[in-house]
């Protein structure tokens, strides 16, 4: 279970039609793996690692900085409320502002790192398309389109379906950018800040369409030696 899933509690059964590897005799192409088998498995494992890193950036680094920013802002508001004339004191305001500015830098760094992971994701998918082209030249279209790579999915099916993972992560990136922009406004009311923190944790675009929801069980069933 990923950190993203663990923040929501127990996972629900996947709707994926592939749950277990069919106990069928291995086809000749699956008895001995080719370089194309190994390259595709490596690409899929790279995508899984990218998505795991994505979860860590959001729910570890990003969430920690976001909460600390809200806490510092709340502490300052509470401290100012205790001052009779509410005239800011430099020794009081300065350190809190410094903390808030540091947390804003950290949040922007998280966004930068998410953008980098998104570029890596696209690069891996481009590599898979190149592998498909190489395999077609070496083994013919029938092999890449009709022959199961390991269990039931062909190489062509892996390559044509895997780009589906791009959209939810693109939406997640845009979502995090929007939340960061809102959270960095020092005039943001506390209730709005609390709502943003809740949205940050929820990551609605990944809940039903992220790697764990759509691809992990499928790859465990369809890709031999998936966890090795």
Descriptive keywords:
single chain, 228 residues, mainly alpha, rod-shaped
Q: Into which percent range does the helicity of residues fall? A: over 70%
Overall mean pLDDT score?
87
Structural class from helices and strands? mainly alpha
Distance between the terminal alpha carbons, to the nearest Å? 17 Å
Question: C-alpha Rg, in Å?
Answer: 23 Å
Total beta strand runs: 0
Low-confidence stretches: 9-30
Spatial shape: rod-shaped
Number of helices: 11
Strand and helix order: HHHHHHHHHHH
List the helices and strands and how they pair.
Elements: H1 3-6, H2 28-31, H3 35-81, H4 90-139, H5 141-146, H6 155-161, H7 166-183, H8 190-202, H9 204-207, H10 211-214, H11 216-222
Describe this structure in words.
Helix 3 (35-81) runs antiparallel to helix 4 (90-139), helix 4 (90-139) runs antiparallel to helix 7 (166-183) and helix 7 runs antiparallel to helix 8. Helices cover 72% and strands 0% of the residues. The chain contains eleven helices and no strands. The chain starts with a helix and ends in a 6-residue tail after the last helix. The model is unreliable at 9-30 (pLDDT under 50). It is mainly α and 228 residues long. The chain is rod-shaped, with a radius of gyration of 23 Å. The chain has helices at 3-6, 28-31, 35-81, 90-139, 141-146, 155-161, 166-183, 190-202, 204-207, 211-214, 216-222. The longest helix has 50 residues, at 90-139.
């Amino acid at each position: 279970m990923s950190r993203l899933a663990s923040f929501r509690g127990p996972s629900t059964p996947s709707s994926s039609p592939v749950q277990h590897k069919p106990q069928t005799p291995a086809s000749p192409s699956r008895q001995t793996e080719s370089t194309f088998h190994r390259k595709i498995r490596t690409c899929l494992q790279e995508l899984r690692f990218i998505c795991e890193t994505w979860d860590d950036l959001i729910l570890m680094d990003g969430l920690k900085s976001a909460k600390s920013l809200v806490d510092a802002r709340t502490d300052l508001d509470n401290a100012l409320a205790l001052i009779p004339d509410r005239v800011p004191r430099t020794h009081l305001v300065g350190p809190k502002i410094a903390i808030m500015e540091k947390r804003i830098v950290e949040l922007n760094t998280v966004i930068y790192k998410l953008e980098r992971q998104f570029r890596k994701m696209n690069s891996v998918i481009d590599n898979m398309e190149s592998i498909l082209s190489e395999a077609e030249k070496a083994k013919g279209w029938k092999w890449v389109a009709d022959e199961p790579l390991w269990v039931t999915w062909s190489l062509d099916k892996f390559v044509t379906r895997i780009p589906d993972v791009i959209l939810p992560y693109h939406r997640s990136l845009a979502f995090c950018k929007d939340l960061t922009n809102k959270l960095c406004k020092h005039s943001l009311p506390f209730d709005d800040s609390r709502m943003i923190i809740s949205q940050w944790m929820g990551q609605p675009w990944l809940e039903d369409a992220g790697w764990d929801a759509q691809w992990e069980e499928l790859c465990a069933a369809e890709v031999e030696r998936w966890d090795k």
